[in-house]
Fold:
Amino acid sequence: MRIDGENGTLLSPGSSAASNSSADEMIENENHSLRDRMADLEKKVHEQTDEIMCLRSTLADVLRRLSTVEGAGRLTTTREGPGRATPTKDQGGRGRHHNHDNREVFKRVASSSSSNIPGRSVSTSHIRRGTHYQSTSSLYSDGHSSSSVSPAPSPSPTQAQTHAPTPHALTTHAQYVRHTPTSPYTSPMRTAQVGALSKRWASTSDFATPNRVTHAHFPTPTNSQLTRRPNSGSLHNLTNLRNATSQLNLTRAREAQYNPDEGVVKLYLRGRPLNLYVPTSVQETYSPTSPSVPPAAKLKLEWVYGYRGRDCRNNVFQLPTGEIVYFVAAVVVLYNVEDQMQRHYLGHTDDIKCLAMHPNKLLIATGQTAGHDRRDARPHVRIWDSVSLNTLHIIGISDIERSVACLAFSKADGGSLLVAVDEAPDHNMSVWDWSRGERGYKLLETKCSADQVLAVDFSPVDRSTIITCGKNHISFWSYDSGMLAKRMGIFENRERPKYVTSISFTDAGNVISGDSNGNLLIWQRGGNTVYKMVRGAHDGPVFSILVQKDGAIITGGKDGQIVEWDRELERTGNTIEIPEQFGSPRVVTSGRGTQLVVGTTRNCVLEGTFTFPMRPVMQGHTEELWALAPHPGHHQFLTAGYDRTCYLWDTMAHTIVWSKDIGEPAQSAAFSNNGEIVIIGTTSGRWFVMDAETREMYSQHQDGNEPIQVVKFSPNGQYLAVGSRDNNIYVYQVSEDCRKYTRIGRCQGHSSFVTHLDWSADSQFLQSNSGDYELLFWNGGLCRQIVQTAQMRDVEWASNTCTLTFATLGIWPEGADGTDVNTCTKANHSSVLATGDDFGKVKMFNSPACHQKARCLEYSGHSSHVTALGFLHDDSRLISTGGRDTAVMQWVVSATSSSTSSQH
Structure:
């Protein structure tokens, strides 16, 4: 018995139990009601998040279209004739950025996006007005895409800017450089060091002009310089002076030397002299050291053909603007399939290896490998804005050793962190507060695995959980108090796969992994043991796992299958078979509506659904690319490479007209003068005669067993010259509308393999270069060498593809070894010469470039050696092919006045 405290009545034990039961029911009802209300609130939050994302998507697309329209308007203004004012240098600079209204609209969009990040202040009083990085299209063009006038090359992250940024540049996109509260991992000394070492980088550099100060390159001090003894300073300075003097004398000794009496200029390559005969008309006034000017014609990157899927993963995404973003070579392509438009981010200096998209769908992070130049192409990560193409942060310089293997933004906290894995032997993994400072702030770093790492990702529900996978492992990481704790995945009695090839997350936070055995495994959230396994999901490795919003799971495998699964990993019956010609699905991502966007192992990007078949939106070569032949009468060109495939491309529709497997690796190609026949030279010494329209093979010929380096028709169409790696040039008589070929003879005399050749305008003579820097002349009809080379000084040449001639003396950089410049070509109807080199650069010179160190305009995009160049028949476009980057780039040639070109 007990007394009720309110009314003093006695309560029996039975009545007390009934009261407790009633109270429990009330509490349970309240809890149930609370859970319902919480569920409703979560549903509303998700709906509002989707609405915000939709609004951001719409605004981003509007801004992109506005940028395109404004760029086109400015381009029209600069090309107007008399009576229109030409924009001044200052006006051009202002025109390269968004106008004030667009910037304010975008700031509101970004503010709504930033508000979703916990612990980050978005008030304007806390916004740091820091510098930002400009991409090529925003700094050196009239619009915000690379299809605007003359994008300039990208300098290295170590290149210091000598000019201060404008106030406009300081405020643009400052909303992304958010104020960051002090981190528990922050060291005062480390913070000071970051501030002291911070520099302003630009993703592009100005063209060198006589009246402008060029960017200074500061060499990195060596260990000997850092440990120099105080008493050895004088001796060291004296040694440096002597070395500099010797180097100066050596350089002067190797400069081109001109003998005006004989009209001969000597060009030295690797210490070997090459005699070049000066045309009679310029002998009296010629000097090899005379100053030169860059050409008035400029290039702008219009289209990039190709995609890197053969060895990269998770590198295709659909942006809110409707664009598909992916990369090839050193270019990130933003491709709007509906509008048939491409934009290009050109901030990188070498091969891009990975790509990650921020949860707000507007920011993108891309990581590159180390390039040939250890100073100018160091591995790093760039974080940039997909709407304006402005670079916001560059992180990892001096921290990443070899290459960025994979990247991922955090998800549970709105994307405030970034994880990167280095391809160095220890595969170091680093976690960054990427928005703190211009170079971000590294929170922690640890050795990830001794084996290859294929993927990394943050958990969408646990902020401190990171998953990595690769050869022989899947690892579960958690970080706290500046430390990373690692737990290896336990397969227990299940077969341990050689590779864990892909990972993803369910909406509940469970990890799904695919492996090289074709199995799918579910790992319980917070654990490191297998919860469920599906054997034989694919016949071979599982390359990609996509979890959609409704919980459905889509996987792509090496077997060419794309399979749909429900939440319980049961097959729904929906499958897609990728045609073998496109390869296997390397990455599968969501497109618009029910569409899927697929990147394949044969460097193709496809679109389609489970109902409608996949169609290619981008195709490319898969192996090293050497052969290029522009069509003599149409806006088309042919490419062929070591993948045994020939493509005929249309430059206006940006599509493939036809493709053909020729069964052998291709080395060279040429169209007949009427464009009806294509000659394709292979690496085995065999060359084919093929119909350019029907692809019918008319005949094949064999000249030696070495690669056919070059094939070229004479201007009158009566001869075909075939240059081989066996040091010989084979000349053929052409008949029956270029369908029959009869060998006349063989030009013997080169001591190394033939690299380039040209016909004279009257089809009588040939000039050719070889691998040991020779320039020889031949009588084409007689196949005899012309020993008296002075007689050839005034011959007019139909083309200029030989890199060692008087007309190309100035294309060789200082210290060139004779192999730096791989290809050159002269425009058909204008005095412009283009070259491609071993450093991925395309350069434009005035032709003839007969003065040493001729000035040029330089363009970046390729990450490998540029193997071939060709102008279209009307000189409206220049086509360039990369070697191992397998990229084909289409540049628009825009002729502008000298005053306009000097602005860049």
Notes: The first helix runs from residue 13 to 78. Confidence is low (pLDDT under 50) at residues 1-11, 75-239, 241-253, 897-904. DSSP finds nine helices and 57 strands in the chain. The CA atoms of residues 758 and 874 lie 20 Å apart.
